[in-house]
Design the sequence.
């Protein structure tokens, strides 16, 4: 074992139980506490040593406290969103076969529209809208400016809107029995 691997293993053996108890007291969920502590140790291991054993221990406990704050913030956000939902938004109403078919066709039209985009615009659109990447992350990944990402995204959005509008207009032209 390398020096840091040995050190983190010793920290884990010595502090895992205390850290789990600390986290469990603050979030009141045994399984989540165990997961959070495991994640904290992983992040600290990847980050590497801070020098002394005391500094590494401080980083470990600080990371655990920050992870609890993040966990509670995320949980609070979810609860706020759920509290704002109306009951009819939570319970899914049955979808008719016609409506399901229309939805599948609209998704297929969007998919066709995406395939006709230039590759970079498509990559920007998918990165932002599907994977939730920020414009800065996409710019860094593609080696382009944030402004260029915004332009590609705008172009892709306009293209997709036109394609969906054309799809909907084509559906309206067909007389319904």
Sequence:
């Amino acid at each position: 074992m390398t020096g840091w691997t040995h050190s983190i293993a010793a920290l884990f053996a010595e502090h895992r139980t205390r850290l789990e108890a600390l986290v469990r007291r603050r979030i009141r969920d045994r399984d989540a506490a165990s997961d959070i502590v495991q994640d904290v140790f992983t992040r600290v291991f990847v980050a590497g040593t801070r020098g002394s054993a005391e500094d590494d221990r401080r980083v470990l406990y600080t990371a655990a406290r920050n992870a609890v704050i993040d966990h509670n913030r995320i949980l609070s956000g979810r609860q706020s969103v759920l509290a704002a939902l109306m009951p009819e938004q939570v319970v899914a109403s049955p979808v008719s076969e016609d409506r399901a078919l229309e939805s599948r066709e609209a998704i297929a039209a969007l998919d066709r529209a995406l395939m006709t985009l230039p590759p970079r615009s498509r990559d920007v659109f998918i990165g932002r809208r599907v994977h939730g990447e920020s414009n800065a992350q996409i710019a860094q990944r593609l080696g382009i400016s944030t402004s260029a990402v915004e332009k590609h995204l705008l172009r892709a959005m306009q293209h997709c809107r036109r394609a969906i509008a054309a799809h909907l207009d084509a559906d309206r032209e067909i007389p319904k029995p």
